[in-house]
What does this fold into?
Amino acid sequence: MIKSRFNFGSRFGIAEFCLLMIFTIGVHAFVLRYIFPGYYNPLWPNHSDFYFSSALANTPSGILSVFKLPRPIGTLFIWLIGHLGIQGSIAAVIVLIQSNCVLSAMLFRRIIGIDFKWSFIAAFFVYLYLIFSQPYFYTFCTEDQMSQLSYFLLINAAWFFHIYLKRPSLYALILFFFFAILAFLAKETYALTSLVIASAWLLSYPKKNTMHALIPLVALVSALGVSFIYNACMHSRFYGFDTNAFNAPYKMILNPASVFGEWSRYAREGLNVLNLGMFLLIVLTSYRYFRADSRKIILVLLSCLIGALLAWIPNSIFPNHHFGGYSCSGSYILFLPVILIALFLQNNKQMYYMSMAVILLGISSPVLNKNEYLRNDWYLEQENIQRNLLSTLHPLLDQVGTTGASKRILVTGLSFPFNPFIHPMCLLTLTKASLPEFDVVAYSTVNFKDEALGDRVNWVKFIRPDQIDFKKYTNVWMFTSDGRLIHDLHIGNPIADQDEPLGVKPGDLIVFPDIARILWSANALVRKSIPINQEMLLFNCGLSFINYDQPELALRCFNDSIAKDPKNPFLYYYVGIAFERINLNSEAKIFFKKAVALDNLKHPNFAFIRALLWAEDHS
It folds into this structure.
């Protein structure tokens, strides 16, 4: 038995950290492989934000420029990990997350007085399992780098306070304040959480040393004050400055009903009934079997639960910026009470069945996360697209070679919302070769975020399809909607012949690569004397044009398809969608009505009905 008196700085403390880190890496891989997403390949981005760290690392403005921005410590961290490359920066955040889990469990073990036995390892497994199987953990936690850093700094503040608790009070106060101010200048997610836990410490500490009891609370309040003043001077939008528009993403709304409504949404997205049952069982068991020391345990338990739930408040005051991924906030603290089952097993054999019930509820909880996992499918699709895109861009950029600077390349087909061209400086991470100029076709404004349409930023300029002049380019990189390169076209090379029953021009095949893929595949079948379904061919082309935000071209395909198959309700539905995209809602209503009329009355398609109701309300 190894007692809880060992500090992190001791040899055992370091050995314990290393052992638990190895264990955490294994549990992380296990949960991702067998729970969600069903595979272990976590180093690929699913959002343009993942490219920002590499872009920031390559900016010529220098490190001091980050202190002119809100959240400077968080930005500095992003700058540092950006030097590791796109995948390296993701790996760094994963290690940070795993470290947060280990440091939290180790400190909790010491505070409660849990011995390092197999019962603790079992409880620690359940703790990790619950965090890593949280519905939005995989798709968002590595994107929220600043929040992970903020927690890391706060848990280190708690660790140093725990280690140096017997040192002079001023020393402990300065050390705690130092880490707290760094944490809140990284991100403010855990501000309320830390205040709750510090208040619990104040209530539980012996009254004979009030100064030691006040140190965490005084340090945190002071750090929050300094952080607020700094961000106010920076006019930080995260504090509600410069966000006067009512629909602005960071418009701060402090109405209690709005805040509670958003908080409730995060609660529904982050927890399920089995989680709640597990917490209730832990509370009841703690009270029943530890009456002699129940005040301390109940106080720790409630401070963890209340503090974790308050971690959702900072995001709840921005209802226009709601995202389910923020329900991960507080998970490190929220699931810490599960480790109490180790204490149950070590102190009372009668608690075996209660402990097993807690473990069973925790292990079973992902079953009720099925719907939330399905909501993340879109992000898994984006991850697959980015994986394909980056795997292709590496060799393409290398092929540009030393003469690349004299080239000008047109990039088509990036109809998906995220890509590295949004943050042009990150392209330097992908190759050592000189970069050419890129004109990237933006099919809708969702294709870019930070750059203005038509303005060249570094090597990249976003243009609309009707602005293309092929004579300006040496090459065209044609990507399909799944991020794969369909053709590296050298201007002047012939494009595959296309019989034009669909009226598709050769230039359209370059600008809209999915159309090229559909028609080239159809031509390959024709050459093999395999019959093709013209109606389906036209329909697929129409869907692709919708995806490219070209409703007028989609209408041409859908109307030709209706002429060949006039009783297909889906064709009328998508004609209505196309009219809706060009704000012809009255025309859209006519075709939605036809779709509903032709639909199977016994098994109606509710998408048709919803579309019709919407069109009736807006026409």
Observations:
- The chain has 27 helices and five strands.
- The beta strands are 408-412, 437-441, 460-463, 475-479, 485-490.
- The two ends are 74 Å apart (CA to CA).
- Residues 577 and 588 are 7 Å apart (CA to CA).
